[in-house]
Amino acid sequence: MTYAALAFLLGLSSGLRTFTAPATLWLMRHPGPWANVLAVLAALEYVADLHPSTPSRTGPAGTIARVVSGAFVGWVAATSLGGDPTAGALAGIAGALLGAYGGLDLRLRASAAIGNVPAGLLEDAIAIGLAVLVVLRLP
Fold first, then answer.
1. pTM (2 decimals)?
2. Is 77 within 8 Å of 88 (Cβ atoms)?
3. DSSP one-letter code for 54
4. At what angle do helices 33-49 and 116-137 cross, to 10 degrees?
């Protein structure tokens, strides 16, 4: 798989959950204090996501956070694979935008079918699983 595809997929995870891809990347590749901080932020995001008053991921703050997260993980993925970091960041941004907007559409459909909490937990599992699978492919 190309570095751009891996950067895109990590960005997709960031679009679903802002802190999941960076936390996974750091926990698996650079364990330490920063990895732990990112893991706590990811856990807090999972909890906050289930609260009815949580702002939409597609609002300005949510979108910006996801784009920054996607750019960061895309940059890191491309760099670790010897690719162009700028192209990796752009692929990560594209993935984050698809994850944010496409993920919201799928989440709303899943919530209608199985309920908000199960849909949120399913989305968490997908974001985590995707990030882990991609990070395992990095050297």
1. 0.91
2. yes
3. P
4. 150
Contact between 14 and 69 (Cβ < 8 Å): yes
The 10s digit of each residue's pLDDT in 90-110 is 999 999 999 999 999 999 999
* pLDDT mean values, one per 10 residues, the chain (139 residues): 94 96 95 94 89 81 95 96 96 97 93 92 94 94
* Residue range of the domain that includes 124: 3-137
Residues with Cβ within 8 Å of 69's Cβ and at least 6 positions away in sequence, in order, are: 11, 14, 18, 19, 21, 22, 96
- Spatial separation of the C-alpha atoms in residues 121 and 32, rounded to whole Å: 27
**H helices within the chain, ranges in order?**
3-16, 20-29, 33-49, 60-80, 85-114, 116-137
Question: 85: which residues sit within 8 A by CB, 6+ positions away?
Answer: 75, 78, 79
Domain tally, the chain: 1
